[in-house]
Design brief:
286 residues; mainly beta; Peptidase_S1_PA; 16 strands; Thrombin, subunit H; 6-stranded antiparallel barrel
Length: 286
């Protein structure tokens, strides 16, 4: 996974639980990699609406039908949850949370703090995502900070689409194209379906987990950044492998991936409530 960044104490706890620990970049590396990417291809997408978590990235998102008075939702990865990595088959719904998020403006400056009221949804089964319901409405965020939520795309993305991964944690963007889609992406104990594979230019790093993947042409969120093969190993932690419909395994060292988000849009009902029984909802149920 594009590992969340955690302190040494939590890393030790994760090791004791048998989970691969997150390792922060060395200070010199942090300074280098935190610098925003230059180049004209990165200018179409800003940081407005992205957030920084304590260990990951995220974004304030809305469905096309969201009302201004609905509680705002924050999108990140399931493996970024403060409760730890959900196990295979585990789905978290409506769990209290007081987590905070630093809201960024277009230039990447923090302009305010949003607070969660609950984990509306979280899982690492079939996909790797979390949705937090916040104590602020979309209208309150816009009135207070002049920032609108990023809209979720409702259709399956297409290969060749120009995209930008916008990391609120690092205040850095990564620009590339959607290279294709993976039938099954296996990493350690987890399996994800129909994952987005980037072209090699998107060299995401630890802390970019949960970043929105934005279609450069529409400005809509099409996926959530979550992992990459770091050292060429096959199907191990931090080294996902691709499995096709016939069971053939492919390893692509240095290639990174995301999980699509269009299939969660039908799950978001009035008042930002997650209803897994709504028609068209493609998220796993508890």
């Amino acid at each position: 996974m594009n590992k969340p960044l955690v302190g040494a104490f939590l890393a030790a706890l994760l090791l004791g639980a048998g989970v691969a620990p997150a390792v922060a970049a060395e200070p010199a590396q942090q300074a280098q990699e935190a610098a925003p990417k230059a180049g004209p291809e990165a200018k179409a997408v800003t940081f407005a609406g992205t957030v920084a978590l304590s260990n990951c990235s995220g974004s304030v998102v809305r469905s096309p039908d969201a009302a201004p008075t609905d509680p705002a939702l924050v999108l990140s990865n399931g493996h970024c949850l403060e409760s730890g990595f959900p196990g295979p088959g585990e789905v978290i719904v409506d769990q209290p949370s007081s987590r905070t998020f630093t809201l960024l403006n277009a230039s990447g400056s923090g302009v305010g703090t949003l607070k969660a009221s609950k984990i509306a949804y979280g899982t690492m089964t079939d996909t790797d995502l979390s949705l937090y319901e916040t104590t602020s409405t979309y209208q309150q965020i816009e009135d207070s900070y002049g920032i609108q939520a990023l809209e979720l795309e409702t259709a399956h993305p297409t290969a060749g689409t120009a995209i930008t991964v916008a990391s609120g944690y690092w205040k850095r963007t990564y620009s590339c194209d959607i290279d294709g889609f993976v039938h099954q992406l296996k990493e350690g104990r987890w399996t994800w379906k129909d994952s987005v594979r980037y072209t090699p230019e998107c060299q995401t790093i630890g802390g970019t987990s949960g970043s929105p993947v934005i279609d450069d042409a529409t400005g809509k969120v099409v996926a959530v950044n979550n992992t990459g093969n770091e050292s060429g190993q096959e199907c191990t932690d931090n080294n996902p492998c691709e499995v096709d419909e016939n069971g053939n395994v492919t390893v692509r060292e240095g290639i990174n991936y995301a999980q699509q988000t269009y299939n969660m849009v039908p799950c978001i009902g009035a008042g930002s409530k997650i209803d897994l029984d709504r028609e068209g909802c493609g998220l796993p149920k508890p």
